[in-house]
Amino acid sequence: LCLASAAAALDFKYHHTAELEQYLRGVHAAYPSLTHLHSIGRSVEGRDLWVLVLGRFPTHHKIGIPEFKYVANMHGDETVGREILLHLIDFLVTSYGRDPVITRLLNNTRIHIMPTMNPDGFEATKVPDCYYTRGRYNRNGVDLNRNFPDAFENSSARIQPETRAVMDWIKNETFVLSANLHGGALVASYTFDNGNPVTGSLKGYSRSPDDDVFIHLAKTYSSNHASMYKGTGCDNRQTFPEGITNGYSWYQLEGGMQDYNYVWGQCFEITLELSCCKYPPEDQLGKFWRDNKVALIEYIKQVHLGVKGQVTDKNGNPIPNAIVEAKGRPHVCPYRTNEQGEYFLLLLPGTYVINATVPGFKSMLKTVEIPDNTGNFSALKQDFSFPEVSYKISSRVASCPKTPLYQELTRASAAVKPTVHVLALMTIMLAIFK
């Protein structure tokens, strides 16, 4: 009872490193079967990057249960997300077993919450400001949301400890859906943040193969937020229809975390700008929590969109590294099964052809009718069994090359043109010669 009381004693104020750690430890001690607390790495100054995992099976991945994550305080001076994630934790653990919706959500979803990705930047922000402080960056003066590998541009930037920790975390979990929480605007922004002519950048919009899903995800959050859906932004000069925007349409960004999740992590992530003031006064935190509470829960439910399943051999053994994608929307970095042979594809309700491919064998196609199963907390289940495969495929390989993929695609497209021109010229010359 003492532990539960301590865990529930969360007020609306800013929690610095020691207080944040104490709170997370208190929650885990009070709810040991529902939570798992671990550090995924350390910041430049040696502070732990804490993640609290919540769910029926918090310590490990369970087949069929999708992985979800929220990350906040990536920019150390953008503080609202840091605090509302603590209140989200409090709401989830205290509602489990009492609220049937939250109970089913936690029974069918493994939720990872990182309140701060940049603890050094938060502690360095000595004088809170609505617009800008040095605390935006990590201890090495690097903007962490410009520090990830980019799908369009080469970068010589040194990967920071905080960035590396998140990249390893993404690699080691089967994340399906994610959001990173920022401040300084009021909008839900979605992939791509960067682009080139292949993705439509010449028209001011960088479109991913899953653009329809991303629009739905962004609208899910904005429409359930107290005011984001109004699209008024933070001043009269900046408006966002329905409270959403394509990242590139807003402003071009290289090395962003949401594009990295989508391309290399097989995880759909959007960026949530939650406050016009980056570091607002403490007495406003209660309102920020109330404004975002419903949206935070409704967004998590979207991890159950689409279709999921396993790919197995004729003996029922899982096949890792099999490519599983919806026909007509291939990813430049093909989406592959995990070590348990699992795949998860976020798709809106409709009819799709799912293509499963085991390297060296004939592809298998299955037509599926996908309903909206978010209310049932389970995506449509569709397994694939390859009767001609009788051995376990070797361990999962890298999901895609390290080089900027869309830059390669551009070069490939450009390389075709001279070849066509040469062939045409040769044909004409041959006709003239004859």
From TrEMBL:
A Pfam family found in this protein is: CarboxypepD_reg
GO cellular component terms?
A: extracellular space
Q: Does the keyword Glycoprotein apply?
A: yes
* A GO term for molecular function: zinc ion binding
Active site per database record: E273
Peptidase M14 domain location: 13-303
Recite the UniProt keywords alphabetically.
Carboxypeptidase, Glycoprotein, Hydrolase, Protease
Query: What's any GO biological process attached to this entry?
Result: protein processing
Which family does the UniProt entry place this protein in?
Belongs to the peptidase M14 family.
Official protein name in the record? CBPM Carboxypeptidase
Q: Name the source organism.
A: Loxia leucoptera (White-winged crossbill)
